[in-house]
Amino acid sequence: MEDDYSNTLRILIATDCHLGFVEKDEVRRHDSFYAFEEICSIADQRQVDFLLLGGDLFHENKPSRTTLVKTVEILRKYCLNDRPVQFQVISDQTVNFPNMFGHVNYEDPHFNVGLPVFTIH
Q1: Using CA atoms, how far apart are residues 110 and 121, in angstroms rounded to an integer?
Q2: Hey, which bits of the chain come out as E strands?
Q3: Per-residue pLDDT tens for 71-83?
Q4: pTM for the full predicted model
């Protein structure tokens, strides 16, 4: 008998990615990005409902342009797709997501977010 996971919220949790760590080191500068891409790849393969990032996404408070571009490339590769999001935020989104749009980005009709990412810092 197969387990029925249709009513299960599947979350992949990762912490302290420190993207951009030792970015000037010729040997290790890509390490944090390889690890982050592996995290996103596992989330995609396992078809989790969302990725929860706790702690430091970036190593520096003001990441370099190179770090930001590489981070966006990885997020676009794994998060923007046509996979339907199978959960709904039922709290007051204008309180929890205080931005000019007033809702989570995966509900925006101008984005195709298939893997939502939430961060806690």
Answers
A1: 27
A2: 11-15, 50-54, 117-120
A3: 999 999 999 999 9
A4: 0.87
